[in-house]
Specification:
Blueprint lengths: L15 H4 L4 H29 L5 H23 L13 H34 L6 H26 L2 E2 L12 E2 L2 H30 L6 H11 L2 H16 L7 H4 L1 H18 L4 H4 L23 H8 L2 E4 L18 E6 L3 E7 L34
Antiparallel strand pairs: 1-2, 3-5, 4-5
Helix pairs in contact: 2-3, 2-10, 3-4, 3-10, 4-5, 4-6, 4-10, 5-6, 6-7, 6-8, 8-10
InterPro entries: Rhodopsin_dom_fungi, SAT4-like
Membrane topology: Multi-pass membrane protein
Pfam families: Fung_rhodopsin
């Protein structure tokens, strides 16, 4: 005689109040706020380089590419808000969950991986201007190569997680995927590498800055803005905590924690990378400009011709109208040490009297310092040109 199996336990009813809970506004508000600031800083940086310094560098183009990746990430957050972002996972319809998983995949490879990689490359290219030291340059190039290598590895982690690739977001097709624990380990390794490079990029230039001849206020400004990179380190640590718990989290969509902290990390990093570039724009307001006391060693034109070369032989240094580094200031008309000389009929060149080589000399705004191997007695000749 067989007995009937016990009836299945009915599912626990969902509390309507709990099911109605939503973090959508919080997620979009915080990420949108940081993203808006990042866009603003990049816009100010591009404006400063194009219209104030009048010279765009490789690092500027790369950081623009990085912020475009951030735009893609913010767009994905916006799309997800219509398909369950910030809602409890069990309350989301199957077709919406499919869209959530698929969009999260592209957000990871575009915003989280490519965006962060481009940002770090941009920072490395910017910091290369601080010093001509061999060890310093080689260290930065090693970091740039390292960032590129582990970012490619991170891409491969996503592309080869499931076969076929669609299996990452569509489990109905029963894909072959490697264990989730291994996927989490790869993610933690990538986060650890990001934290390591963030610390390096924030710490390495500090020793160089303290050796530059500049006002203490200017030096402190540079150290502070470069130290903003430590905030991205903190966000990376927070993200790693959620990565460790990823496999056990059954309500991922309610906070979308990993993508949330990754996105904040990217946008805060963009803000930190752009802040030093704004000095020509805000230098006078913050009283970190030294335009009233230009003396010492300015960046020398690398293509001396005719009258320009003759002027430099008389003890002057040319202030290139297209300053190579965004932390340089331009000479101001009427400055006691600035002299204008008309060269042909095409343009005016600003020259500056070169003072002595004592401890008091040296440009406070100079980042790429000229080679000081030329020693000896220097004669200074006053030149007055009238038009």
């Amino acid at each position: 005689m067989s007995s009937n199996p016990p009836p299945a336990t009915p599912p626990k009813p969902i509390d309507p109040e709990w099911a109605a809970e939503s973090n959508t506004a919080m997620i979009l508000g915080v990420t949108g706020g940081f993203h808006a600031l990042a866009l603003l800083f990049v816009a100010f940086r591009v404006y400063t380089r194009m219209f104030v310094v009048k010279l765009m560098g490789r690092d500027d183009y790369v950081v623009v590419a990085s912020v475009l990746c951030a735009v893609a990430g913010m767009t994905i957050f916006s799309v997800q808000s219509f398909h369950g972002l910030g809602k409890h996972t069990i309350t989301i319809a199957a077709e919406d969950m499919l869209i959530m998983r698929k969009s999260s995949f592209f957000q990871s490879i575009i915003s989280s991986i490519a965006g962060l990689a481009l940002l770090k490359v941009s920072i490395g290219l910017s910091l290369l201007r601080l010093s001509r030291s061999v060890w310093y340059s080689r260290s930065l190039w090693a970091l740039i190569v390292f960032v590129s290598a582990y970012s490619i590895m991170a891409w491969m982690t996503f592309f080869f997680y499931c076969q076929p690739l669609e299996g990452y977001w569509n489990k109905v097709i029963q894909p072959k995927c490697y264990p989730i624990t291994l996927f989490i380990k790869f993610g933690l390794i990538n986060t650890a590498f990001n934290i390591f490079t963030d610390v390096c990029f924030a710490t390495l230039p500090v020793t160089i800055i303290w050796t530059l001849q500049m006002k203490r206020r200017t030096r402190i400004y540079l150290v502070v803005v470069l130290s903003l990179g430590y905030f991205t380190v903190a966000m990376g640590v927070i993200k790693s905590i959620y990565q460790i718990a990823y496999g056990k989290d059954q309500d991922k969509t309610f906070y979308q924690s990993i993508q949330f902290w990754e996105f904040l990390q990217l946008n805060l990093g963009i803000i930190a990378a752009c802040a030093p570039s704004l000095k020509p724009l805000v230098g006078h307001a913050l009283k970190i400009s030294s335009s009233d006391r230009y003396h010492g060693e300015l960046y020398e034109n690398r293509r001396p011709t005719g009258t320009n070369s003759s002027m430099r032989r008389r003890g002057y240094r040319e202030q290139n109208s297209q300053a190579e580094y965004e932390l340089q200031d331009r000479p101001f008309a009427g400055s006691p040490d600035a002299h204008k000389a008309a060269v042909g009929n095409s343009h005016d060149t600003v020259y500056e009297k070169h003072g002595g080589r004592g401890s008091g000399s040296g440009s406070e705004e100079m980042i790429l310092r000229e080679d000081k191997s030329n020693t000896g007695i220097m004669r200074t000749t006053e030149i007055s040109v009238q038009r």
